[in-house]
Amino acid sequence: MRFLNFPTVVQREVFECFSFEELLALSFCSKRFRNLIQSLQKYRFTKIDYLVYRKIFKETVFITARSSDLKQLLHISLHEDQKNEEINSNEGFKIGGVHCSLYKSSTFSWGSMYMYERNQSELIIECVHNYFYAFFGSSIDYQIDLNCDKLPQSLKNIAGSRIGLSENMTGEELEACFTSSPSQKYIAILFKLNGKLCPDSVLYNTENLYFNSTHIDVDDLLFQFRGKCLFLVERNVTDLNIIRFLNEWKSNRKFQNMKFVSIFTHRRNRFDVAKVLYEADIKHLDPSETTLKLEWKQ
Q: Where in this chain does the record put each F-box domain (predicted)?
């Protein structure tokens, strides 16, 4: 069947019957097929709000795309071929014009599984991400969600990262994760930092930052943060840290972009709330005299 010779209206109707995963698989057939899908199905791609690369195990990557109402539109997984055999070129296909091959292993109710050659994990992830970015477009938030024993590689055009590690990492090692995408909307760090952050860390300029580490220097992060929202979990925060921060924030000499701050401490002794309120000259608004309403969007 010469599908590419069919009238456009027929091609469009046929594509409407395919899921996102099926359209993606068809796009691997040829460059002409890919361009046709992009042209006729571009309006469907706008339904994708974000796409997440989630790595829990060393050899497996789960890729999920969802709409703004959290409806799952795409779910595939990439698995390392443990047999250490080269993928037959007749079975698989090349990604990104480089020598990294995938072949479709099976399809489940929750998505499709693809296999890649052993020890090609980083190359595969980079090539797949670049392909997705070119195929689905730049309007999607591409995110990384990693929870294993190795830092993620640096990828271009990443809007948000969540990194949870079991091993101690240095500030320099952490910084290398954001070389290709230094300006991200949201970054969450959950691990033990071995040392301090880099002097001019990209984390200081992150729009929304969540940092949970038991070995961080509070002055490094709290007083150099230049983003909008900061969520800090730290056991070494003191009353003096809080008072100094609030006074500098109120003076408008620093933190001009700051909109929200949340600090949680594991200390057994609570803060001296009365002292903090007095030293920082905090005033309470009367609820009956203000109509201010704050809303938080996940």
A: 1-48
